[in-house]
Amino acid sequence: MSRILIVFGDRTADEMISAFRRTTFAATFDRVEKWYYEQDGSAGEIERIANSFREVFYLVGVVDEYLRVGIVDLASQLGWRPWTVIDPMAWVDPTAEIGPGCFVAAQAVVSCRARLGPHCLVHFQALVGHDVTMGSHGILLPGAKVSGGVILGQRCLVGSNAFVYQNSVLGDRVKIDALGYAQGTLPGGTVIRAKRDPA
């Protein structure tokens, strides 16, 4: 056999596979395999399947940052290569740079001169503004909005319908809850909680 794409994860993996099948590249693959990776020895089974293919590509649809990095490390050790999927219903400006192993979902927007590092996920209806830089393993959940000029460090997560104000700088592993709002310079590891109305 020639080429296989292995997509790790559960529901997001289903979305990735659906988007992949609607791209022109899908016809160049012999098989697509969804795999819910667990650290209990199941890696051996997917490795056995992959060994029957000449070229093995992968995509990670897992939100947990440690599991994501573990999957990427394993895939790299096995010589597998990351594959990027951009849903045909997404809009990515021609000047944007999308790193290896990224996923851009339907109705997402990646604006001019934006740069996504390796293994970033931009979910449904998320917006990456102009001149935004996302570090590796960055995740924008559905409806998240990142304004122009923002710098996101590695492993940042912007929750559903959260907003990052223009020219903000977020250190590594900053987490913004769903409906949260971030502005200014935030040190690594900061967690922004959404404001709740008093009861």
Task: Give structural notes.
With 199 residues, the chain is an alpha/beta fold. The protein has three helices and 23 strands. The strands form four sheets. A seven-stranded parallel β-sheet has the order 5-8-11-14-17-20-23, with helices on one face. Strands 6-9-12-15-18-21 form a six-stranded parallel β-sheet, with no helix packed on it. The longest helix has 13 residues, at 65-77. The chain is globular and about 50 Å long.
Notable characteristics:
199 residues, alpha/beta, six-stranded parallel sheet
Number of strands: 23
- Ends distance: 61 Å
Structural class: alpha/beta
Strand content: 25-35%
Largest sheet: 7 strands, parallel
Percent of residues in helices comes to 10-25%
Estimated radius of gyration: 17 Å
The topology string of helices and strands comes to EHEHEHEEEEEEEEEEEEEEEEEEEE
Order of the strands making up the biggest sheet: 5-8-11-14-17-20-23
Shape: globular
Stretches where pLDDT falls below 50 for ≥5 residues? none
How many helices?
A: 3
Task: Look at the structure and give the mean pLDDT.
Answer: 93
Give a quick summary of the entry.
This protein is of the alpha/beta class and 199 residues long.
Furnish the topology, listing elements before pairings.
Blueprint: E1 3-9, H1 11-21, E2 31-35, H2 43-50, E3 55-61, H3 65-77, E4 81-82, E5 85-86, E6 91-92, E7 97-98, E8 103-104, E9 109-110, E10 115-116, E11 121-122, E12 127-128, E13 133-134, E14 139-140, E15 145-146, E16 151-152, E17 157-158, E18 163-164, E19 169-170, E20 175-176, E21 181-182, E22 185-186, E23 191-192
Parallel strand pairs: 1-2, 1-3, 3-4, 5-8, 6-9, 7-10, 8-11, 9-12, 10-13, 11-14, 12-15, 13-16, 14-17, 15-18, 16-19, 17-20, 18-21, 19-22, 20-23
